[in-house]
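Subgroup meeting minutes
Present: P.N., E.W., G.H.
Scribe: E.W.

1. P.N. recapped why we're keeping a running log of single-chain structure predictions: easier to compare across weeks, and new members can see raw inputs and outputs side by side.
2. G.H. added today's entry (667 aa).
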Amino acid sequence: MKFFKILAIFSLFSIQTNAFFAQNFNSDSKYSGLELSERLFAELEKTNSGEAKKLPLSTAVFENFPYNIQLEFPAQDNPAQKTFVIALTQEDAWNKIDFVKELFDFVSENKFEFDVNFIFTAGDIRRIPGNEKTMGTEIFCQTMEGAQNLHALLLDFSATKKTRVTPGAEKNISPLYLTRPLCSSLDGESVDYRISGDIFISLYNLGILKSDARLSAFLSRDIPAVMLSMLSEKESYDEETSAIKNFLLDVRLPESGNWSRHYIPVKVHSRLFWITEGQTLTAITIFIALCIFILSDFEFIFRKKSRRLVKLKESALKSTYLIFLTAALITASLFLGQILIAAFQKAGTRNIALLFIIKTSVPFFILSLIYPLEIRIHKNLLPYIYEYILSLSALLNVFIFTSLDISLFFLFAFEFLILTLSRPAKRTAFLYVFMAIFFLPFVPLLYSILIYSDARKIFELVFCALDKNIFMGFALVPLGLLWLRILARVNSKARSTKSAVAYYLVACTASIVGIAVLSVFSISMLNRIFFKNVERNRPLARVEESSENTFSSVSILDSEYYGGKIRSIEISSEKIPERYAIFVQGESENPIYFSIYETSRENDRTEFLLPENPPQNLTVTYTPDFSDNSIITVEAYFLNGNPNQAKKEIFSFKAEGGEISEVRDEF
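Output recorded in log:
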């Protein structure tokens, strides 16, 4: 232990840099990196409000890197030790310093039943992809993980069309006791805002909607939090400031564990209603009672009269296997659809909505092709049987998807109601109308997915694994059975199997043409109406690998210290770097025996966790594993005068038997 203490002290003093401040300016002459942290900290000290503290991003010396800043406003009486955190990035705090100071004054002048801490995080706004593990919010939440009675409001200025409330991230939902008072405060100040996900915020639980990395850092650690995004370009934030003040006065922080995650915001005109988890459970109970009443006509099976009805019921019961057979057939068809759209994608088709429509259309082509075989196997299969299994499949979906997420109950209950109302319809034209009405409940669902999901999330729905295709298959079963019912209706008009097949082929072709026209129209409407509401993300710089290392140089030196080996990686840059990444890949499971820097292992490589905006000159030391057979890779990233283009320089070294040599073209 004495050796490691001496080694830690030695390493601490050996990590020195020639440039104490990493001055980094962009084209807008805004500060970033360490200089931004230093200037913001100095500005906060002038406010005489609260107590400002520096929170390092690295477990080693943090003077060379940016750091988080915390400003504390303790409550006079806080027996429950509740803490409310207001989090902003340092870039937003610096650019909107008057907005921040007004909140300071308000908090210092009012009494709350909880402590109020402002946290200004560094490294959250990345200009090049990667390095998510060492952002300021992530590190702050790591230090607070497991803390009791901690709650948070995250603020930023990333909205471009409307002020936005984000109530979830990465399979987590913000608690209702934070979301509802925040929205009420915005309504009270007449702020024009939207809720990400709209009525389908439950899609956050399923990991479908786009997640904010900062909010995810809180929610993934069971720290209750909600996010408010204000317009990026606005002269005054008086309404938003007043709304935040009212929110702080109105919010009631419960004890830990009281966290309602299943609720639905419903906006009618300008008024917002909230369907809580308890109300949903009540609706489910009423729905079950209603279903029992609807299905109670099975009592006629036990009556001696109406033998024809009894036979129909018996045939219907025996045909329930068609639900699962159709689900399996649709699931297999979806996989075939993925193969088809992969070919379309290679041919140059990039419209994700078109690819999704093609994929979901394949099952109906397959059902249409197989139906003549169904005619030969079940010549006496009547439309009534399809009516029954159609309602049963819709009822089955209610319970399947409600078990997946309770908030989806209303969507599939509405679907069940529509399909139940379609049972008396006999004319083919009416069945087509109900088939169109069937899509109505899914329009807001598709809208939420298209508006609030990023391309990667939608891509995962189009090219998905078996489990998602199975759920999608069951979701399409009622529609597939409705299509079979239409075909059965066509068949009932024909006198022979041959004429039925011919008639069905003509009707099927006409229907497919109609669906194709409707799909093209739908895509056009999506592009014109829906996609114009999508808020585009700030693009990250595209990284290009450099063939020559012109901006930086790396050298590795070994030294002996009390019988142990200390390896120093010295990085020197002529230009201000955006990021350094250091990887060690060795024969052992952990090629780094000791280091004062935190590390992360992924696959067979161990990475030093270095914050963004490092100094130009940096030395990292560590003790290698005793085998000392490893490959050391250093990556240096620079914004090469273009905010949309970054340059990566790579250095590779091989350590073998105490000898270190640089490797060319190894990676």
